[in-house]
């Protein structure tokens, strides 16, 4: 096994967690599941698969994950950031193990490993349009953390560099449409808060791989400079038409409609509401 501790944040993930933990068996020395009040069999499933379970009140993802880094008693060289709806494949594990045992990882400045997903929606892989779901999944203990953002936090390094793997992990980011809509409404509030923080001078800099850096710059330097509401339509048309999202059939249409148009329109509506009425942000808590 590699000197890796996997951290998985959960709330009511009985549908996904077992397959997630099975996928890292034989790779990660330890799995830590940090739960925030599941009412289903999530905690029981975690223990059945040999994971250590911690319980901690949830405010937002980055804070919860960084709390786990600081409080899980991690003594492995590397930390794996994994969500319950994600799976590592045998081919990806083999590539990661080879890299972790290399001289640049053992004695050099290689401190992070970025992976890209094969993203599934309604059971179909999304191969066109918005399809590159990337994140730094592995980073060295004491060097990597999550940036303190309310929505879409990336892993960052205090020193060294990261590389990308060629093999992909599997991301089944879907339970049902009711859950999806509730979750993305929850996300939209946090994205609005991050945007308001940006308008007040919060930094958007990030020490990540060039692709992620480029996306962050385009989001705040280009997308958010376009007119509200219109930018959501332009983002949808760009990904669904010009980046060929329509080639993924009905699932591709629904995914790009919700991801690029509906969600982005909802974020803009929440920004508009806040700019018009102001007020205090809601207290952050886990999605019910």
Describe the model.
By secondary structure, this protein is α/β, with parallel strands linked by helices. The protein contains nine helices and eleven strands. It has helices spanning 17-23, 42-48, 61-71, 90-100, 103-106, 177-199, 210-221, 230-242, 249-277, and strands spanning 2-10, 28-35, 52-55, 78-81, 86-87, 110-121, 124-125, 134-140, 144-146, 155-157, 161-172. Strands 1, 2, 3, 4, 5, 6, 7, 8 and 11 form a nine-stranded mixed β-sheet that branches. The protein has a two-stranded antiparallel ribbon with strand order 9-10. Helix 8 (230-242) runs antiparallel to helix 9. It is globular, with a radius of gyration of 19 Å.
List the helices and strands and how they pair.
Layout: E1 2-10, H1 17-23, E2 28-35, H2 42-48, E3 52-55, H3 61-71, E4 78-81, E5 86-87, H4 90-100, H5 103-106, E6 110-121, E7 124-125, E8 134-140, E9 144-146, E10 155-157, E11 161-172, H6 177-199, H7 210-221, H8 230-242, H9 249-277
Parallel strand pairs: 1-2, 1-4, 2-3, 6-11
Antiparallel strand pairs: 4-8, 5-11, 6-7, 6-8, 9-10
Helix pairs in contact: 6-9, 8-9
